[in-house]
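Example: Prespore-specific regulator.
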Amino acid sequence: MKQTVRTMRQDAWTTEDDAILAEVVLKHIREGSTQLAGFNEASRKLGRTAAACGFRWNACVRKQYRGQIELAKQDRKARKSAKIQAQLEGGDYDHPTATLMSWAQVLRFLRQEKNTAQHWASRWRAAQRECNEWKEKYESLEHTHREVLTQLERLRRDHQVVVQDYRALVEIFERARKAAFLDGEAVSGGFMYRIDEYGNLERVASDLPAQQAE
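Written out as structure tokens, the predicted fold is:
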């Protein structure tokens, strides 16, 4: 397979490779970038890994270019100062720097921060009110739910009692139906039933007079 420029090389470093690596890294230092970014760019130019470029820089190249590194740092500092000055002279108040700031810039910046803080505080209070409203609704629904459960349990007990009473009544009537004839005829078994003044069903002897049995 034909190798491309991007193919990772394993051969030894040459003087030309060191010069390219130094040029790229020094450029990133002057522009305020990082050495890691320089290693990444150099890796693409040299066909090596960024780790290999970094190792070569720290092991050999950096020692040979100490003077150029100091000059690049001074250049970077000068560029930064010039940029700050240009921002101040150009009236770039929306992005005040952390070093040279006029009182007007400081005041504008603080006002913006105050407005931002007030905005978020207002949203926080609104969220708190909404949270309290939902909490009250939840507590009300929970109370209603407990009441409904209590009523349901009471209805279940009442229903059980009604079912038991109904079964007992059906059993009484069934025994009475089996013990007596219809239309006042003689009662088999020697007894019949009547309802007393309290509404209770009682058994009476069949030999009593009809008027007394009624």
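Residues 180-213 form one domain.
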